[in-house]
Amino acid sequence: MILGENGTGKELVANLIHRLSRFNRGAFVPVNCAALPSELVESELFGMSPELLPGPLKPASDGLSKPMALDFLDEISEMPAEAQAKMLRVIETGE
After folding, report:
1. Three-state secondary structure along the chain?
2. pLDDT at 64
3. Non-local CB neighbours of 87 within 8 Å, separated by 6+ positions
4. Were both Cys, which of 35, 43, 52, 61 would link to 66 (CB 3.0–4.6 Å)?
5. Residue 75's closest CA among 86, 84, 88?
6. For residue 68, what pLDDT is reported?
């Protein structure tokens, strides 16, 4: 988790971490959570199978040996509280 005020370079730091990681051949995909319509946030992030997710949210790979997308979730605090709770569960438990 990268914390900071708007305009402090959180996305640049995340991109640098990605470029220095073993996943650097995969795409770095920033997602602006504030830009997702509130009525579609949960269905976009949780309600569809990975094959049906829109392009920026599709996982590039399911294995460690292949390139995979690293999604940078910007403005996550702008998501509805219920969606934030579900995102926390995914981060903590992988479910």
Report:
1. CCCCCCCCCHHHHHHHHHHHCCCCCCCEEEEEHHHCCCCCHHHHHCCCCHHHCCHHHCCCCCCCCCCCCEEEEECHHHCCHHHHHHHHHHHHHCC
2. 40
3. 45, 73, 76, 79
4. 61
5. 84
6. 43
Of residues 54, 63, 76, the one with CA closest to residue 26 = 63
Question: Among 64, 72, 40, which Cα is nearest to 54's?
Answer: 40
Token pair listed for 95: 């479910």
Give per-residue pLDDT as tens, 28-72: 888 888 887 777 777 766 665 555 555 555 555 444 433 445 578
CA-CA distance, 70 to 31, in Å (whole number)? 10
61-78 exposure pattern, b = at least 16 Cβ within 10 A, e = fewer: eeeeeeebbbbbbbebee
Please identify which residue in the block is written with the tokens 């640098």. 16
